[in-house]
Amino acid sequence: MDPWEVKRTMRKVDWRLVPILAALYSISLIDRTNISLARAAGMGRTLNLNIPGTNYYSIAVLIFFVPYILFELPSNLGMRRWGAAKWLGGATILWGIVMLAMGFVETWQQLAACRALLGIFEAALFPGAVYLLSSWYPRAEVQRRMSIFYSLSILASGLSAILAYGLGLIRMYKNQGWRSIFIIEGIITVVLGVIGALTIVDFPGPKAKFLNEEQRAIVKTRIERDRADFVQDSMTFSKLMRFSLDLKIWATAVQFFGATLASYSLSYFLPRILAGMGFDVALSQLLVAPPYVWALVPVIGSAFISDRFQVRTPLIAFNAICTIIGTSVYSYATGTGPRYFGVCLAVGGCNSVVPLVIGYSQINIRGSAKRAFTSAIVVAFGGIGGIAAGVSFTERAAPHYTEGIHLTLAMNAITVGICVLQHIVFRVQNKRANDGKAVLEGHQDFRYQL
């Protein structure tokens, strides 16, 4: 194949695929985490979320994740049936409507019900986007696309605090600024959902009309040479049972749990953690942004190093260690400066691990059905990480959150241990395959990446 034509084709795929998925996931992450910013803007007082001895806020946070987990795999199966554009765009429109409704709730129970609906519709996007992205690229090119896709959402998360602060100054309903956060961001979500439904490209193949026949052949040839799974295989019950016995899927799922536990706890509780350092409400919201802007450096840097040198587990372990160090510093150091530095280190570390683990889970498997199963299971464990964050970072433990901090440290230490184990096991299995004693992932030329 002509290298220039290959580069031109994949750049065309990049522009049609990555920006819109990144935009949808950015608004997804904003919509699921802006509850903390709305609370700081007055929602906690209006809906009685701040009553001592209650966990109403934690309930509203974690109830999102129950349907989010349960609907991951069914959603990926639905996307295979109805197509990516309709499925992902339609889901975005629906949760945008739910966000609008959250601007008019009067009780914490109504807020919790809206959060549950939000979980149902948002369950479609992240695993679906991971599945779709990994289907278009050879394994050596997956990681940087995953990280660029995810890094834009990190930037949006940081800037969302500033956006929410500005929206909170607008009095749209009942003269309460926190309602404007939900209403205006809900409108933005619906608009992006419509754009997504019109522009998202489907899986590689005849439906990819934005490519000509030669370009579609290039995509197919590259995937077949890399992992020989261009043609979608059907999902059956026997395959589900076989996939569920693959321990490496569950190992990466546990790693994802550790990463999202840290990232969700910071997303939901960072304003309170900063307030515990002595900052006032307004400054606590504004100081959320710089750590997320900084996180772009390790996230994108780790991705390019990972793909350039085909290094996977060492980078996951390194960033998990950064999360451990940063969490320890912001929790136990004295002085506002060192503690804020710890926040930056922790935000950068855990948000680097998220796309690294997601990419790694897709790199070491074959088959579109297994790809759909894996993305659903791994992302579902991210939802469990969100539940763990809501349960362990309770109102009673604010602003130090001792139990949540200890759980975060333990899970990221487990992530490092799994990386060491993966590296050893995959190296042994690759050697057996090289010696003709094993066939990996059902293909004689397939090798695990370390």
Automatic annotation (TrEMBL):
Keyword field contains Transport: yes
Topology in the lipid bilayer: Multi-pass membrane protein
Transmembrane segments: 56-73, 85-104, 116-136, 148-168, 180-201, 249-270, 282-304, 339-360, 372-393, 405-426
Source domain of life: Eukaryota
InterPro entries: MFS (IPR011701), MFS_dom (IPR020846), MFS_trans_sf (IPR036259)
Assigned GO CC terms: membrane
PROSITE patterns membership: MFS
GO molecular function, a single term: transmembrane transporter activity
Subcellular location: Membrane
Transmembrane helix among keywords: yes
Key words, A-Z: Membrane, Transmembrane, Transmembrane helix, Transport
Domain (Major facilitator superfamily (MFS) profile): residue spans on this chain: 17-450
Name of the molecule in the record: MFS general substrate transporter
Naturally occurring in which organism (per UniProt): Ceraceosorus guamensis
